Amino acid sequence: MIFFDNVTKSYPGGHRGLSEINLHVEPGEMVFLTGHSGAGKSTLLKLIGLLERSTRGQVRVGGRNLTRLKRSQIPFHRREVGMIFQDHRLLHDRTVFDNVAMPLVVAGVGHSETSRRVRAALDKVSLLTKEKAYPVTLSGGEQQRVGIARAVVSKPPVVLADEPTGNLDPDLSREIMGLFDQFNQVGVTLLIATHNLDLISTLNKRILTLDGGRLAQDTRAKGQGPVNTMRT
Amino acid sequence: MKREKRRKKSAHISRRRRLHLHVWLLRHLQVALSSLGRLARAPLSTLMTSAVIGISLALPAGLYLLLQNVQELSGSWDGAATISLFLHQETSAREAGELTRELGLRADISSVRLIDRDNALEEFQRFSGFSDALRALGGNPLPAVIVVEPTTDHSTPEAAESMLSALRALRPVELAQLDLQWVRRFHAITDIARRAIAVLATLLGLAVLLIVVNTIRLEIQNRHAEIEITKLIGGTNAFIRRPFLYAGLLYGLFGGILAWFLVVLGVGLLDPPVARLAGLYQSTFELSGMGLDASLILIGGSTLLGLGGSWVAVGRHLNEIEPS
């Protein structure tokens, strides 16, 4: 589903975000991405969501070669990739319902279909009762769940999460990870950047460790085959 | 059979296309209404922006209307290449009548009118208010006048000039006068005024454009977060652009309507005194207001300026916002 072929991302001034990354994530996989701050976790996710482009090498998502994707095609790529952020990125002048509905409005989904799917997504994250509330009246965990509902409402095949539990206590973090696991059960490919090692070590999932922009370790979940990062 | 299939297929396509159009129109209507709602939620700033646009456009529109009226007033002088022939005092009424008849037969003259000495005196007494002075003079000091109007073909300044010199040579004519010079001067002045108004309208139109550019630029800045998030979740540039374009268009529309209203108000205020002044000159002249054409041009032009301004602002500033 997600291929990185010898991908390097360097920034003006010579700083390297990522160096020669080779990576293959299968459809329906749930993968954690760890490493120190500045190891390149966010950069890797940004390359997949086309918030940035690689300097060298090729990134492919769902058969699309992102290196060659035209600017005008970027919005349509992003509709296939749900993104979740540590700071939620909700619009505070809109209700929970309107926030979650945004991807569907943007994609031109009809009115009744939109409300049906928004309610389904809110139900999934147990926030159906808060649909008319404004984000500021919600707790941090609830706001993060609104962000998650927005990322999955249009049923994208790939969901990226950048430190989704960064500001949450252990119980809430576990709850959020449980949600991700549920999405994974229905076939969504997930890539989650986190440095909450204690939590992910209990989940038996594949873990990629980045160090200084290089892929330092690729630990498969127990009971699965050996890693082949060179597969293209 | 094949044709039947093709017909069905094309009917299907056209139905789908119609559905597409329907959805597209519905989307646009939604965006237009939501832009309208956004403007209505900030009535004061909307009103101020529209007022600036309205006043900027009312000024050239009002001046243009004024010029239009002046030209309408002078329109009756356009064929005013009349030649007045003042006859010698000693010319008898019979001679004057004969000359009038002769002139009336010429092909290049459309009408001739004789004002004999008695009529001239009477007219002068009636309109000038110098009747007492005239009575003190004893006799009638006024000459007979023949007013000659050339045909349209001979009304051009050059033809009228040459006719003037021909008529001046006639024996009973003491003085021949072509009432054209001042009409030409007047036309030259209105030409300058028209040019000046066009320059003013261009400058103020540009000002309106810049006002809208700036307003929309601020709006884009205010909605920075919203634009960024919309781009993150796959909003196309066209989708993001649309509400701003509608906002600019609505500013232009409101400004245009306001300008129209100001001009109509101005005409309403000027009409009674103008009618009074016209009455003093025995004229039934009436100020003409904004016609349908001019109104549509004013409001439509203003709307286009608004749309153009927001297009410029959106083109310049929307690409600067990229999610990170």
Q: How much β-strand is present in the residues of chain A?
A: 25-35%
What is the N-to-C order of secondary-structure elements of chain B (H for helix, E for strand)? HHEHEHHEHEHHHH
- As a percent range, the share of helical residues of chain B equals over 70%
Helix percentage range of chain A? 25-40%
What's the gyration radius of chain B in Å?
Answer: 33 Å
Concise structural overview:
With 232 residues, chain A is α/β, with parallel strands linked by helices. Chain A contains seven helices and ten strands. By secondary structure, chain B is an alpha+beta fold.
Write the layout of secondary structure elements.
The complex is a heterodimer of chains A (232) and B (324).
Chain A: E1 2-10, E2 16-25, E3 30-34, H1 41-48, E4 56-61, E5 64-65, H2 74-78, E6 81-84, H3 96-107, H4 111-124, H5 140-152, E7 158-162, H6 170-185, E8 189-193, H7 197-201, E9 206-211, E10 214-219
Parallel strand pairs in A: 3-8, 3-9, 6-7, 7-8
Antiparallel strand pairs in A: 1-2, 1-4, 4-5, 9-10
Helix pairs in contact in A: 3-4, 3-5, 4-5
Chain B: H1 2-41, H2 43-75, E1 83-87, H3 93-105, E2 109-115, H4 117-128, H5 131-137, E3 145-150, H6 157-168, E4 173-178, H7 181-222, H8 224-232, H9 237-280, H10 292-317
Antiparallel strand pairs in B: 1-3, 1-4, 2-3
Helix pairs in contact in B: 1-9, 2-7, 2-9, 7-9, 7-10, 9-10
